[in-house]
Amino acid sequence: MTHSPDDEAKLVMLYVTxxxxxCGKAIARSAVSHKLAACANILPVMTAIYQWQGVLEEGNxxxxxxxxxxxxxxALMEHVVNQHPYDTPCxxxxxxxxxxxxxxxxxxxxxx
Length: 112
Hints:
By secondary structure, this protein is of the alpha+beta class. It contains three helices and six strands; from the N terminus they run E-E-H-E-E-H-E-E-H.
């Protein structure tokens, strides 16, 4: 059985780019231990291409995915910004569609 976001407190995911796995792990551990995120996943390597101060940049980064309730997003974003080494970190809230029931229940329980 699946749950839609209206079935329980609305669940969301934050997409955060970080310079490397070590940074991602540090932010993830802190967010989960403070119960701002129920779970974190880190994708170790991606290529980022962007303009920074008028210069085309390209480099490797990691992606940190943080699963949480919508009511915790502002606090979680502030927490990430305070620990993030970038001047302008990428932190985006992604709405979630359907989630399998057992996982949604577990996720919600971790945030209480």
